[in-house]
Specification:
Layout (H helix, E strand, L loop, with lengths): L2 H15 L14 H11 L2 H7 L1 E4 L1 H10 L2 H6 L11 H9 L5 E3 L4 H11 L9 E4 L17 H6 L3 H16 L5 E2 L23 H16 L11 E5 L18 H17 L4 E4 L3 E2 L2 E2 L4 H11 L5 E3 L4 H7 L7 H11 L4 E2 L3 H11 L5 H17 L13 H4 L3 H14 L1 E5 L12 E5 L24 H8 L4 E5 L10 H13 L2 E7 L27 H9 L5 E6 L14 E4 L7 H9 L56 E8 L3 E2 L5 E9 L5 E11 L10 E10 L4 E8 L1 H4 L1 E2 L5 E2 L3 E8 L7 E8 L1
Parallel strand pairs: 1-2, 1-10, 2-3, 3-4, 5-6, 6-9, 12-13, 12-14, 14-15, 15-16, 18-26
Antiparallel strand pairs: 7-8, 11-16, 17-19, 19-22, 20-21, 20-25, 23-24, 25-26
The chain binds beta-D-glucopyranose.
Length: 765
């Protein structure tokens, strides 16, 4: 694992890559197909089954073994540990060509080292390294940390999604990572679920566009040394779990699946995504990991997916030990492979049991060959055979380079949502000379969000640091509340309340805790679901007491899931920053002081309370026929598509060029948007439609297009959209996709809220 190994090994690989006539698979000038077939016929059954298996990196295991008891390791499936199997065994298997992939390898040194072991194997098939590079390759230290997906979604910026994915791919390859377990294209429909922040929100159309651009950005042409394999996940339905908890059952009609959950996956396949991860949950009584209908009928037969399917963490095991639809582990492996899984994440029993299943004649070897072909195809395409190592001398030239840092800042500026402003913002440097800053997220790396490792201080600008940077002459009085919402000190809350009274203005930075290196302390993120949407710990009390000072109080939220927030009416301003990434603190401060005019709009509905769930904007007409008799109204705290700016926009002249079309016709729409304020800005113009009467019920509105429009103060622009038949179509009673004749309502405006929308109608004859 020394530098020297990588450098020597680069040379070693080049010697063996020329290939001889017989070894077509080593010949880079041969077609990928020929190389795959040549290699496949040289492989033993054991080697083939090994290609279908994944392991976690040895350093990950060592790190866990160092801090956990054996019992903890055995019983904690989140931290890989293979009872009776040591790091030495993993290394030996790698040298024997019995492992196809690793995950949770976090350094270039370890990746190059493990690869050097694979290069000692009989056929020298390189390892494909997979990693959860969800918003940048943030899980591994010293990479650019972009804002999390929900923040990106609120920018409605599809070009930015592409750019971030492209840059992430470059940083990954620079450390010998080839495969990201992203984009997560689940449509988030339950705010209790801890993974909302990992998604692009609740709207299938927005999720689809951002997912497609991410796939394209990661993969490029899937043949260059800067391309990585994308993985669309998790297939499917886990984002609407029956009780809000990760991996709990989902019971979804085929209609809902096809209308809401499938479109981003189908589009991802069409965009060329070559890997897909199945979901933890069971779907309508069948675990996704053994679900033939999903993996064979829909994915392979209908969508013609040519890539490979990887299981999620321990989920094949769970077919047996959780869902109990397989009597033992071997049967679970059988069901998963015959269901359509190609690669197993992760563990020691796969190799032996799957080989047995083939020898017993239960799984045809041709079925194994199918999976191995798909996996080898990607390894060849990505050029890993020719370039199995990354250059340790060059890695830091790419990772965290200036261009990528600039993107991280720009993305954060675009994704932070201004939810409330009574006029206090943008802050005046001269009016507020003394500002009290407090709250768990004021001066903490938690702004990096889930799927991030702790970063070097110089690579993160916390919110407090951002404030000091943007307003150097202001006196910021910081009352530290620690990072842990569950362990706040009441004395510190009182101290903040007291100091608030002597300040000119107060800023409370509250929210959730998301950093996964403190797995059990988080309140948001993977496996961190909630039965309420309130702020945890003494945070409500802190806000209440600070606001009671009578001084203007601003709340900044750093979180992943929507939070119903205490007494929003008592605060002067509220900013939803989500997890804005490494320069999130600077971006927040720039928005507070008006250096940046906020433009983001909510990609998820923010409910008042958990009791209102399910709360989504694109619900069916009868959802609120009867109001709640007590408690909160049936309106959200903030609706989908909502977000404020420091300027104002006026919408007018909504025109439809066609008032009548045939079922295959299109409608051209135009609207005039004017910046009526005195600041330049970017407005996210949204177009929704509703099918007025239809043979099956349709949502009250559905986003069908949007545009990010920059407008100088006083400027007007005409924004054009085109409503094509695919945007009007839905599944009829026979589950046939049709455009039905009748009247459609077109709504264009600044949010999904009716009062923000201009309407027009057209008719399909
Ligand atoms: C998550 C996946 C992730 C995998 C590997 C699982 O627990 O559900 O999204 O890719 O772990 O880290």
């Amino acid at each position: 694992m020394k530098k020297i190994i990588a450098t020597m090994a680069i040379g070693a690989c080049l010697c063996s890559c020329g290939g001889s006539r017989e070894e077509v698979y080593k010949d880079p000038s041969a077609t990928v197909k020929d190389r795959v077939e040549d290699l496949l016929k040289r492989m033993t059954l054991e080697e083939k089954v090994g290609q279908m298996n994944q392991f976690v990196g040895v350093e990950h295991i060592k790190a866990n073994s160092a801090v956990m008891t054996e019992d903890e390791l055995r019983n904690n499936t989140a931290n890989a540990f293979y009872p009776g199997f040591t790091e030495k065994d993993i290394e030996k298997w790698t040298e024997e060509g019995l492992i196809g992939s690793f995950l949770h390898v976090l350094t270039i040194e370890e990746a190059n080292y493990l690869q050097s072991l694979a290069m000692k194997s009989r056929l020298q098939i390189p390892i494909i390294f997979g990693i959860d590079a969800i918003h940048g390759n943030a899980n591994a230290p010293d990479n650019t940390v972009y804002p999390t997906n929900i923040n990106l979604a609120c920018s409605f910026d599809t070009l930015m999604a592409y750019k971030i994915a492209r840059q992430t791919a470059r940083e990954m390859r620079a450390m010998n990572m080839h495969w990201t377990f992203n984009p997560n294209v689940e449509v988030a429909r339950d705010a209790r679920w801890g993974r909302v922040g990992e998604t692009y929100g609740e709207d299938p159309y927005l999720v689809t566009l951002l997912g497609v651009q991410s796939v394209k950005g990661y993969q490029g042409n899937l043949n260059g040394s800067e391309d990585v394999l994308a993985c669309i996940k998790h297939f499917v339905g886990g984002s609407e779990p029956i009780n809000g908890t990760n991996g709990s059952p989902t019971d979804l009609s085929e209609r809902t699946l096809r209308e809401v959950f499938f479109p981003p996956f189908e589009a991802g396949v069409k965009a060329g995504a070559m890997s897909l991860m199945t979901a933890h949950n069971e779907l309508n009584g069948i675990p996704c990991h053994s679900n033939e209908w999903l993996m064979q009928d829909v994915l392979r037969s209908e969508w013609k997916f040519p890539g490979f399917v990887v299981s999620d963490w321990m989920d094949i095991e769970h077919i047996h030990d959780l869902h109990a639809t397989a009597e033992n582990l071997k049967e679970a492996f059988y069901q998963s492979i015959m269901g359509g899984i190609d690669m197993h994440m992760h563990g020691i029993h796969w190799n032996e049991m799957v080989v047995e299943l083939v020898k017993e004649g239960r799984i045809p070897e041709s079925r194994i060959d199918e999976s191995v072909r798909r996996i080898l195809d990607i390894k060849f395409r990505l050029g890993i055979f020719e370039q199995p190592y990354a250059d340790e001398a060059r890695t830091t030239q790419v990772r965290l380079c200036d261009e990528h840092r600039v993107t991280a800042l720009e993305a954060a500026r675009n994704g932070i949502v201004l939810l409330k402003n009574d006029g206090v913002l943008p802050l005046s440097h001269s009016k507020y000379k003394r500002i009290m800053v407090t709250g768990i997220n004021a001066d903490d790396q938690n702004i990096l969000g889930d799927w991030s490792a702790p970063a070097k201080d110089e690579n993160v600008t916390t919110i407090l640091e951002g404030l000091k940077m943007i307003s150097p002459d202001t006196q910021f009085d910081f009352v530290d509340q620690g990072w842990d919402p569950r362990n706040m000190d009441p004395k510190k809350v009182f101290e903040a309340a007291a100091r608030a009274r002597t300040a000119d203005l107060n800023i409370v930075v509250a929210g959730e805790y998301m950093m996964r290196f403190r797995w059990n302390d988080r309140t948001d993120g993977e496996d961190t679901d909630r039965s309420d949407l309130d702020l945890v710990g003494l945070q409500n009390e802190l806000i209440e007491k600070v606001a009671a000072s009578g001084k203007p109080t601003i709340l900044i939220l750093v979180n992943g899931r929507p939070l119903g927030v205490w007494a929003a009416e008592n605060l002067s301003a509220i900013i939803e920053a989500w997890a804005p990434g490494m320069y999130g603190g600077q971006a927040v401060a720039e928005i507070l002081y008006g250096k940046v005019n906020p433009s983001a709009k909510l990609a998820v509905t923010i409910p008042h309370s958990v009791g209102q769930l399910q709360m989504i904007y694109n619900h069916k007409p009868s959802q609120y026929f009867h109001p709640y008799v007590a408690g909160k109204p049936n309106k959200p705290l903030y609706p989908f598509g909502y977000g404020l700016s420091y300027t104002t926009y006026k919408y007018g002249d909504l025109k439809l060029m066609q008032k009548e079309i045939g079922t295959d016709g299109a409608v051209d729409v135009s609207v005039k948007v004017t910046n009526t304020g005195d600041r330049d800005g970017v407005e996210i113009v949204q177009l929704y439609i509703r099918d007025k009467f239809s043979s099956v019920t349709r949502p009250v509105k559905e986003l069908k297009d949007f545009a990010r429009v920059s407008l100088k103060a006083g400027e007007s622009k005409v924004v054009n959209f085109r409503i094509t038949p695919d945007k009007l179509a839905f599944y009829d009673k026979k589950m046939k996709k049709v455009v039905e004749p009748g009247e459609f309502i077109v709504m264009v405006g600044a949010s999904s809220n009716d009062k923000d929308l201009l309407t027009e109608t057209f008719t399909v004859r």
